[in-house]
Design goal:
Blueprint (H helix, E strand, L loop, with lengths): L36 E9 L6 E11 L4 H10 L14 H18 L6 H16 L3 E3 L1 H6 L11 E3 L6 H16 L3 E5 L19 H17 L7 E7 L5 H20 L20 E6 L1 H9 L2 E5 L6 E6 H15 L3 E4 H6 L24 E9 L12 H21 L5 H10 L2 E6 L1 H7 L7 H29 L5 H20 L6 H24 L13 H6 L14 E5 L5 E5 L2 H8 L4 H14 L27 H11 L10 E4 L5 H13 L4 E6 L15 H17 L13 E8 L2 E9 L5 E8 L5 H18 L4 H8 L8 E5 L2 E4 L2 H13 L2 H6 L5 H10 L30 H16 L13 E3 L7 H9 L16 E3 L2 E3 L11
Parallel strand pairs: 4-5, 5-6, 6-7, 7-10, 11-12, 15-16
Antiparallel strand pairs: 1-2, 3-11, 4-11, 8-9, 10-16, 13-14, 14-22, 17-18, 18-19, 20-21, 23-24
């Protein structure tokens, strides 16, 4: 299948060696000498058990690195036994261990034109890593420069044939990859279906049956102490006779999980009973062809083919099969879809073999038995203080990093010989980026906007163009990849396809125009140099999740993702934590033309509410700039799809991303996403409907068995008894206080509302403090408030308490309620006027004085114009701004103090106008996902980290822990 010639150069070509330009460094000055270093103590605990899971004191990091970044690097990447002299104690040691290994390998393999070029390469690579401009994937930090096998790749694709030897070898190879903390994917379509015969005359087991064994193996290795959960991808072609069983496999298991959960078993992710269900350790994807998708559009039949002969053995309704895919994805988020013809149309090595599978997160798509090492650039590092993008530096860094990545293949070790052969022969690389969402926000672009997509397309085009340009330059120095000769024509054809796609980009402003101009020049060089020299690498770019390394670079957003939420959870040096509005927001507001006091007011609103809706002075047309993956203004599903489509034509591989849909999404909406993904030219697509999985929102990775049993009991109680859920008011809420007099008795009525204007609490003060009447009124108001929060409609109380007669009664001082038969009568008439719509209260005979006057004049209480809407409880009658009061005075007063404490504790809060609002966080909040729960008032649909117990947040098609950097699969 692959060419096996040794690609390591034996002799250098005449005049060979690349010249390395300086980008950031100063001649004669080492990058370490330009940084202020400080000593830190890294202590990490599981917040649920209180157990200290890691402790290393006196580690050395630049003062500009956040506590979170230094914690993750210390715990994940420092090598050597804790408490021994062999343990790394400084970021300098870590960077030197990696960079000096790359430099030595580059010299040994003839990459540099001179020793000076090698030194510049060393300093530029060091400077870029030190200043968080880019990062290699985790295996590089784990292994390079150590005595362990120097595995540099995070992504693997395996293969399996229709034989028992091959199937058992699949289990073995997967096990070794999982043991090292990496993930693998493969296509099972070569295995005969359960509808075909064996040579002995019996019926074949089919691929789904063999998936059980692989799933059990992955689960065992996961629980046996791997650095993270086993990550795997299983793919089946849509024309396989067992495709329906494959599609429904995980949906059926999800039904089983729900039944067992309701029976009291611990079906939490990582729970002791979850192992009783199958297929939970893999992502499943269906490989669909253009033929199948056209049959879906046309409503025709589609043939399922025997694996051995290729003959059609069964016809199915294409639309019905497509509906089953969509329904299963709606039920449990599996399977995803991979678009086979699109993938192979962009394949640079079709003469060697087709692309049949991907890695677990679907960004790496290449030959069977191959691997890919990744690196990602931090886009926000290229945005200058004047809000211009440093295009030249970006291109030079891409060329620097792609050179280093190719050098790593010269010394890398691989888990199997076949993977090593293919990777050395085809040298697949995966350069990408992180912080796109933060860059778009900082430059005033909405994620789901034409401007945002244009900028993202231009950046991605330059990324891959610059990478292939350097690959062609390297081919002139150390030779093209071994498999290039037989694939020269299709490789060059794909380069021309990328170039043509670049020509189709329509720029909208000065920033994306300049980037696109550089990209156009890069692709012209790619086509010219490639025709002359060939290419060093069969693949250059992917967009990976950048989970752990995203935290290492202090990125606000991962991969291609938009911002997760506008308010972040931030740990402080010296202990404690703060709630901080993203630093990108003040910069974005300034870019949009807002002034200092306006920015401060908007930021304060975001700190209180978690969103920008109704922020003082913020124009509604600017709301889209601050749309996030989660929260009040979550980006629509097609917004994610369109962004993927804008960048996909400029990537060698694909994009690790999940399209999130609300819990209310329908099967038809998922079908639309899958269909549009195909039409827009995506290579792969996965969807996730909120709360569709049992194991994730209920995860409790750090609890004891007793706690889990109690949690399971609570879940059963909720399901069986259908208890109402209390919707608590936010800590800071708007309220209106009304003074009144009924029959000479004076009192005060305070009504507090939710953010949407719905009534949530009342306070009644009547008589002197401590009097019996006053106490009864306060207790009555408290009981009404609790009932309102549990969902009892206000109109129910209005019906029950209006017209109730008792003293005091008589005249009031309220022009809308001139007579009251009791205090209860008055209070609920007043609440009805303020918080019920016109139709509801009119039916009850409750009207304002203006409405009664109108009825005498016109015969109707309702206004003849649209002004009637003004009487509805949209906030217009809740009083002037001076009437509103904040019921949580402690919170409002704590903000300046908290901000000061945050700065003093090293929270990296920017100074100056519009600095992010910071305040202390409840001890129950341990991550941004949990902080978002507080703002949304509902549980975030994400698993708990098995290491530290923190609720994880999405990163591409995986989840990542902000506490310790652990991921659910991808690096």
């Amino acid at each position: 299948m692959t060419d096996t010639a040794d690609t390591r150069p034996k002799t250098r070509r005449a005049g060979a060696g690349v010249h390395v330009e300086r980008i950031f460094t100063t001649p004669g000055v080492h990058p370490y000498d330009e940084v202020t270093w400080e000593s830190r103590d890294v202590v990490q605990q599981n917040w649920k058990t209180g157990e200290t899971i890691f402790e290393q004191r006196g580690v050395e990091f630049p003062e500009t690195w956040s506590l979170n970044a230094s914690t993750i690097v210390t715990t994940k990447y420092f090598r050597g036994a804790l408490g021994t002299p062999a343990r790394e104690t400084s970021l300098k040691q870590l960077i030197d261990r990696v960079v000096l290994t790359y430099v030595k390998a580059g010299k040994d393999n003839g990459y540099f034109a001179s020793d000076d070029d090698a030194e510049i390469f060393e300093h530029e690579l060091t400077w870029s890593l030190l200043h968080q401009v880019f990062s290699f994937n985790s295996p590089v930090w784990f292994n390079v420069g150590t005595k362990s096998p120097q595995q540099v790749s995070a992504c693997f694709i395996l293969s399996v044939e229709d034989s028992m030897d091959s199937i058992l070898n699949w289990y073995k190879e997967e096990g070794f990859i999982f043991k090292g903390g990496s993930g693998a994917g493969l296509n099972l379509s070569r295995i005969r279906s359960s509808k075909e015969l064996l040579s002995s005359g019996g019926t074949a087991s089919g691929p789904v049956s063999f998936m059980r064994g692989a799933d059990a193996s992955a689960g065992t290795i996961k629980s046996g102490g791997a650095t993270r959960r086993a990550a795997k991808m299983v793919v089946l072609d849509v024309d396989h006779p067992d495709i329906e069983e494959f599609i429904e496999t995980k949906a059926r298991e999800e039904d089983k999980i729900r039944a067992l959960r309701d029976a009291g078993f611990d079906m939490d992710l990582g729970g002791r009973d979850i192992t009783s269900v199958q297929y939970q350790n893999a992502n499943n994807s269906v490989r669909v062809s253009d033929e199948f998708m056209r049959a879906v559009e046309e409503g025709t039949s589609f043939g399922l083919r025997a694996r051995g002969t290729g003959e059609v053995i069964e016809h199915v309704d294409a639309r019905g099969l497509f509906d089953k895919i969509n329904k299963a994805a709606w039920e449990c988020a599996d399977p995803g879809i991979q678009y086979d013809d699109t993938i192979n149309a962009w394949h640079t090595n079709p003469e060697t073999g087709r692309i049949t599978a991907s890695n677990p997160c679907s960004e790496y798509m290449s030959l069977d038995n191959s691997s890919c090492n990744l690196a990602s650039l931090n886009l926000l590092k290229f945005l200058r203080d004047d809000d211009t993008f440093d295009v030249a530096a970006f291109q030079k860094v891409v060329e620097l990093v792609i050179t280093a990545m190719d050098i790593s293949i010269c010394f890398a070790d691989f888990p199997t010989e076949s993977i090593g052969v293919t990777t050395r022969d085809y040298r697949q690389l995966g350069i990408g980026y992180a912080n796109l969402g933060a860059l778009l926000m900082a430059t005033g672009h909405g994620y789901d906007s034409e401007g945002g997509r244009s900028l993202a397309a231009a950046i991605t085009s330059l990324l891959t163009g610059a990478a292939y340009k350097r690959s062609a330059e390297l081919a002139a120095v150390v030779g093209p990849y071994a498999g290039y000769a037989r694939n020269a024509e299709p490789h060059q054809r794909v380069m021309r396809k990328h170039q043509a796609a670049n020509d189709q980009v329509r720029t909208l402003d000065a920033m994306d125009s300049e980037i696109h101009r550089y990209a156009t020049k890069a692709w012209a060089d790619v086509v010219e140099l490639g025709a002359k020299n060939g290419f060093r690498n069969a693949q250059a770019s992917v967009l990976a999740p950048t989970g752990t390394i995203g935290f290492m670079m202090d990125c606000d957003t991962t991969g291609i993702e938009p911002d997760f939420s506008l308010v972040k959870f931030k740990k402080l040096v010296g202990g404690g934590s703060m709630q901080i509005v993203n630093q990108t927001i003040p910069r974005a507001l300034k870019k949009l033309g807002y002034q200092g006091e306006q920015i401060e007011a908007i930021v304060e609103h975001i700190a209180d509410k978690g969103h920008v809706i109704d922020a003082p002075g913020l124009k509604p047309e600017h709301y889209e700039v601050f749309d996030c993956a989660m929260g009040q203004r979550a980006i629509a599903p097609m917004g994610h799809v369109r962004m993927m489509a804008a960048t996909q034509p400029f990537l060698s591989g694909a994009i690790s991303k999940t399209v999130n849909l609300p819990e209310s999404a329908t099967v038809e909406e998922i079908a639309e996403v899958h269909l549009e993904g195909w039409k827009l030219g995506l290579k792969a697509l996965a969807v996730y409907r909120d709360n569709c999985k049992v194991g994730q929102p209920l995860s409790d990775g750090g609890s004891t068995a007793k706690d889990k049993a109690e949690a399971a009991e609570k879940v059963v109680e909720k399901v069986v008894e259908y208890r109402p859920v209390r919707r608590r008011l936010p800590k800071r809420r708007t309220s209106q206080t009304t003074s009144f007099a009924v029959g000479g008795a004076e009192g005060y009525l305070t009504a507090g509302t939710y953010d949407d204007g719905q009534l949530g609490e009342i306070f009644l003060r009547l008589g002197k403090q401590g009097s019996t009447l006053g106490g009864m009124m306060e207790a009555f108001a408290l009981s009404i408030s609790v009932a309102l929060q549990y969902g009892v409609p206000l109109e129910t109380y209005v019906e029950k308490f209006t017209n109730m007669r008792f003293e005091p009664a008589g005249m009031t001082d309220d022009p809308d309620v001139r007579m009251a038969q009791s205090i209860m009568d008055y209070v609920f008439r007043r609440l009805a006027l303020d918080h019920l719509d016109f139709e509801t209260r009119s039916f009850m005979g409750i009207h304002t004085s203006a409405e009664r006057a109108r009825q005498l004049e016109t015969g109707s209480y309702a206004e003849a114009t649209d002004d009637a809407a003004a009487s509805e409880p949209d906030g217009s009658e809740l009083g002037t701004p001076t009437d509103a009061v904040v019921t949580d005075e402690a919170t409002s007063q704590a903000s300046p103090v908290a901000a000061e404490a945050s700065t003093a504790a090293g929270a990296d809060v920017e100074s100056g106008s519009g600095a992010a609002s910071a305040r202390t966080v409840s001890s129950e909040v341990h991550s941004s996902a949990e902080l978002l729960e507080k703002f949304q008032g509902k549980a975030a649909d994400a698993p708990m980290c098995m290491t530290c117990g923190t609720k994880m947040r999405p990163a591409g098609s995986c989840y990542v822990c902000e506490g310790c950097g652990s991921t659910s699969g991808c690096s």
